[in-house]
Amino acid sequence: MPTLTYTSLLERTLEINAKDGSLSAYQYITEYADKVGGNRAQIYNFQYSLAAAAGLENEALSLLEEAVNECGYWYGYDYLNSDEDLDSLRGYQSFQHIVELCKQREEEAKNSEKPFVKRIQRSGKELLVALHGDQENITISERYWSAVDHADLAFIQSSQIEFSDGYVWDDLQRGKGELTAFYEELAQSFTPETIVLGGFSAGARIAFQSVVDEEVKVKGMILVAPWLPDLDEYAPKLAHLKANGTKVYVICGDKDDDCYECSLQLISLLKENEVECQSSIITGLLHDFPVDYKEKLNEAVAFVYTD
Predict the structure, then answer these.
(1) Which regions form coiled coils (predicted)?
(2) Helix 57-65 and helix 93-111: axis angle, to 10°?
């Protein structure tokens, strides 16, 4: 079995659900739930929703109660009231109690929403800024991007929280504004020629748009499984990257249903606009980081910094 990560566990579960149904997917994620790190609240979410969809109502309620009552997690009020997978649970009084408890916790969390940045200082000469993917957080992001050998690190976490420790970039302008604000702070210590901006999935989208719109200036970008649904809109602006000397390194799996095609399109557009770019398309990889990401990351950083 290939190396299992938090992200690959979720992706493989979705794949099994689409192919073999909710029961098989539930059995799979339950078997491996304790063998990865990541956001345990999200793993519980997959488990109880798949169990409910498979008709295992008692198991679904037990998992949801464990997540909320014992672990202290919460899930979005609108999601709990609307997701079709949970339809079979809505007649239970215990479920309604959990919904109300989650509503309170969600209100508390959103009343204190703010972006967050974590800094790791090393050489003080170069800086890698990394943005997490949707429904992720700094802890997950750090596990991958801290593999860079020498540069200082800055991990930016969105203010937009969707459930316990699950942050998203749904509001693009808000996300770009938060990146810009942190960039201005970080730029007091680093020049654009020393900064590399990286992102995974929706975080890569925020990074890409911010640079192409010239809201931030960097030496280069490292885009991992970039989710770029509006790439056509940004295609005419790619000349800015060549003009500013911005390099781009793209990493994506050929089994990534959401990001593979737009990654290929991006690579083609970058070449058409004579933007310095390199890419690594990973055979068999779903929406995830490759197992040799440390080597890929340092290769990408070396490419960006080499004149």
Answers:
(1) none
(2) 40
- Cβ contact 126:152 at 8 Å: yes
Q: How many Å apart are CA 73 and CA 290, to the nearest integer?
A: 30
Greatest Cα pair distance in the chain: 64
What is the distance between the alpha carbons of residues 95 and 115, in angstroms, rounded to a whole number?
A: 31
Domain 116-305: top CATH class: alpha beta
Q: What is this structure's pTM?
A: 0.94
The SS3 call for residue 90 is coil
Q: What is the pLDDT of residues 23-42, one digit of tens each?
A: 999 999 999 999 999 999 99
Cα distance between residue 264 and residue 183, in whole Å: 28
**Torsion angle, alpha carbons of 234, 240, 242, 248, to 10:** -50
Rg (CA), the chain: 20
- Reported as a single tens digit per residue, the pLDDT across 103-139 is 999 999 999 989 999 999 987 789 999 999 999 999 9
Question: Rounded CA gap, 214 and 237, in Å?
Answer: 10
* Residues 52, 88 contacting (CB under 8 angstroms): yes
Q: What is the pLDDT of residues 241-292, one digit of tens each?
A: 999 999 999 999 999 999 999 999 999 999 999 999 999 999 999 999 999 9
Q: Which residues pair with 194 in a beta bridge?
A: none
* C-alpha torsion 175→268→281→254, nearest 10: 80
Backbone angles phi, psi at 2, to 5 degrees: -60, 160
- How buried is residue 232: exposed, middle or buried, by Cβ count under 10 Å (0-12/13-18/19+)? exposed
**Predicted pLDDT at 3:** 77
**24: which 2 tokens?**
């098989």
CA distance 18 to 36: 22
Q: Where are the domains of the chain?
A: 6-111, 116-305
Note whether 49 and 80 are within 8 A (CB). no
